[in-house]
Write a structure and sequence with these properties.
The complex is a heterodimer of chains A (126) and B (137). Chain A has five helices and no strands. With 126 residues, chain A is mostly helical. Chain A is elongated, with a radius of gyration of 20 Å. The model of chain A has no long low-confidence stretch (mean pLDDT 93). Chain B contains five helices and no strands. The N and C termini of chain B lie far apart (64 Å). Chain B has 137 residues and is mainly alpha-helical. Chain B is extended, with a radius of gyration of 22 Å. Helix content of chain B is 73%, strand content 0%. Chain B has one domain (30-136): Up-down Bundle (3 helical TM bundles of succinate and fumarate reductases). Chain B has helices spanning 4-7, 31-62, 64-74, 77-103, 111-136. Classes of the chains: A mainly alpha (126), B mainly alpha (137). Chain A binds chain B through residues 27, 30-31, 33-34, 37-38, 41, 44-45, 48-50, 52, 55-56, 59, 68, 72, 75-76, 79, 82-83, 86, 111, 114-115, 117-119, 121-122, and chain B through 40, 43-44, 46-47, 50-51, 53-54, 57-58, 60-61, 64, 67-68, 71, 90-91, 94, 97-98, 100-101, 104, 128, 131-132, 135-136.
Chain lengths: 126, 137
């Protein structure tokens, strides 16, 4: 049984009017990270070492480089979504909240771009 | 005691005398509540760990010397302790995340089920962390 009004069911929106997209994005990136994260720790365990030569050889493989870049970007995205919820939950001063959200977004985009750039450098060898 | 400020119509949230509904501090912590709080805490820890992961990649791209400097810092006792902590946070957030995804299908909400899956998450995340470091060290 649903407590939704017929109009509410047609519009598909809750009382907040949005937020479903945020919730969904968090779940979908979580599914991606469960796969990519498992791939990463299993790969590390199979390498069994983080010596320079082994790491460079591993990340230099095209498929590994692509998966690593996907992992880093998805981590940054999922992390941004999570930090955003934490800030919105605990910071109630409007100015501070907006400032923190902007700083968090900048930091996460920076981390995503910096890691992909580093992976590209390893792959291309510059 | 009557609240004059409220009667004047100005609702002051900072009034310490206002009646409060029971909150965190009043309950005996059920295991499920501890895990819920841990999920958020480990998520934040992982956000910080992401910076270290990125630093690892940058140092690897910079060449053997930069990489050695990085592994020397992270291979120190304090560095290793942090890495083990981050790996535990990662495995916990991963295991409990899968528990959350399972919940999203509408299943597993019975009290006994939720408590059992909570313990399973704790055991699995500790075991994965232990297995990972047994291989890596």
């Amino acid at each position: 049984m649903s407590l939704k009004s017929p109009l509410g069911r047609v519009l598909g929106l809750g009382s907040a009017k949005d937020g479903t997209d945020h919730w969904l994005a968090q779940r979908i990136s979580a599914v991606a990270l469960a796969l990519l994260g498992s791939w990463f720790v299993v790969s590390l365990a199979m390498l069994g070492t983080v010596k320079y030569g082994n790491v460079i050889a591993f990340l230099g493989e095209p498929l590994n480089g692509v998966l690593m870049a996907l992992l880093c970007v998805t981590l940054a995205y999922h992390s941004y979504l999570g930090v955003q919820v934490v800030v919105e939950d605990y910071v109630h001063t409007k100015g501070t909240k907006i400032a923190l959200l902007i700083v968090s977004r900048f930091a996460h985009v920076f981390v995503a771009v910096a890691s992909v750039y580093a992976i590209l450098r390893i792959g291309i060898g510059v | 005691m009557p609240n004059t400020r409220l009667r004047e119509g100005s609702i002051n949230m900072r009034n310490p005398g206002r009646p409060l509904s029971p909150h965190l501090s009043i309950y005996r912590w059920p295991i499920t509540m501890a895990l819920s709080i841990l999920h958020r805490a480990t998520g934040l820890a992982n956000a910080v760990g992401l910076v270290v992961l990125t630093a690892w990649l940058i140092q690897a791209a910079d060449g053997p010397d930069a990489y050695l400097a990085f592994t020397r810092v992270m291979g120190s006792p304090l560095g290793l302790l942090l890495l083990i902590g981050w790996s535990l946070a990662f495995f916990y957030h991963l295991s409990n995340g899968i528990r959350h995804l399972f919940w999203d299908t509408g299943r597993g909400f019975e009290k006994r089920q939720a408590e059992r899956s909570a313990w399973a998450v704790l055991v699995v995340s500790v075991m994965l962390t232990a297995a990972f470091w047994l291989v890596m060290l």
